[in-house]
């Protein structure tokens, strides 16, 4: 997502490296996915999100390869490399992916957090811990909403042609913080869905 901040060739390399990470992640969670398909409403929702996430990733990486200026330059038919729909899909679908990945993480938060607590023997019953957590979540949500406007997430999802946004003009660290905050909004939504379903 940091296309504007890193060397373009690095964007392509990192983008391709996401593929083995996702394959390992899916392989690792294959059994859980199969049981989700036969489970209750929450599990089925989870499985549908998994499938859409995978589809998004296939679209992002295959369109990336088509429009590549470095690693695959000259290997792809110019018709595909210049195709405006392929370009727009490549720059819009990552935002859909980010939203759904946030919900996906939120749906699995409780189980994951329980394991982290056990591994690091964290004591989360203290009142100070609860206050800090709630304040952090509130801050991330506020910055995430502000960041969504700053990076024109809605326009990006509507596949509008956007060259740069106020967010992409920020220093890299601030941009990353904004992206994490946007991601957090959807993690909270996934967490709430998990509780109520
Ligand atoms: C997980 C994988 C990837 C993600 C999330 C991703 C995300 C993005 C995003 C968000 C942009 C647009 C930035 C902006 O305009 O604000 C972009 C641009 C671009 N990406 Fe990727 N990318 C990925 C993989 C790849 C790969 C594998 C390639 C090539 C091999 C690639 C090539 C490009 C190119 C050439 C552009 C410029 C597009 C244009 O000017 O229309 N990307 N990418
Ligand atoms: C193409 C993208 C992805 C796919 C297809 C995918 C697929 C899956 C599947 C099938 C599961 C098993 C449980 C279930 O049925 O939902 C799972 C679990 C999980 N995923 Fe993903 N995932 C993707 C991306 C991500 C990302 C980006 C994150 C983190 C930001 C993430 C975090 C997790 C966590 C924390 C679990 C629970 C693991 C556990 O409790 O052992 N996933 N994922």
- What's the total number of strands? 0
Strand composition percent: under 5%
Number of domains: 1
Over the alpha carbons, how many angstroms does the gyration radius reach? 19 Å
Q: Structural class per helix/strand content? A: mainly alpha
How far apart are the termini? 31 Å
Low-confidence blocks of residues: none
| Biggest sheet overview | none
Number of helices: 9
Helical content (DSSP H or I, runs of 4+): over 70%
Unique bound compounds: protoporphyrin IX containing FE
Shape: globular
| Mean residue pLDDT | 95
Order of helices and strands: HHHHHHHHH
Write a structural description.
The model has no long low-confidence stretch (mean pLDDT 95). The protein is mainly alpha-helical and 197 residues long. It has one domain. It contains nine helices and no strands. Helix 1 runs antiparallel to helix 3, helix 3 runs antiparallel to helix 5 and helix 5 packs across helix 9. The two termini are 31 Å apart.
């Amino acid at each position: 997502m940091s296309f504007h901040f890193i060397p373009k060739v690095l964007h392509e390399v990192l983008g391709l490296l996401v593929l083995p990470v996702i394959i390992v992640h899916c392989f690792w969670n294959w059994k859980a996915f199969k049981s989700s398909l036969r489970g209750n409403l929450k599990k089925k929702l989870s499985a549908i999100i998994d499938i859409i996430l995978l589809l998004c990733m296939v679209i992002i990486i295959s369109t990336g390869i088509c429009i590549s200026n470095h690693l695959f330059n000259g290997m792809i038919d110019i018709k595909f490399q210049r195709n405006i729909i392929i370009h727009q899909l490549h720059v819009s679908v990552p935002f859909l992916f980010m939203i759904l990945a946030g919900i996906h993480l939120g749906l699995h938060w409780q189980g994951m957090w329980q394991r982290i607590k056990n591994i690091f023997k964290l004591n989360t019953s203290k009142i100070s811990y609860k206050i800090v957590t709630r304040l952090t979540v509130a801050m991330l949500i506020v910055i995430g909403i502000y960041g969504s406007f700053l990076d024109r997430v809605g326009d990006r999802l509507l596949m509008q042609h956007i060259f740069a946004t106020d967010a992409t003009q920020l220093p890299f660290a601030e941009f990353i913080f904004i992206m994490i905050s946007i991601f957090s909004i959807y993690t909270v939504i996934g967490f709430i869905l998990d509780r109520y379903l």
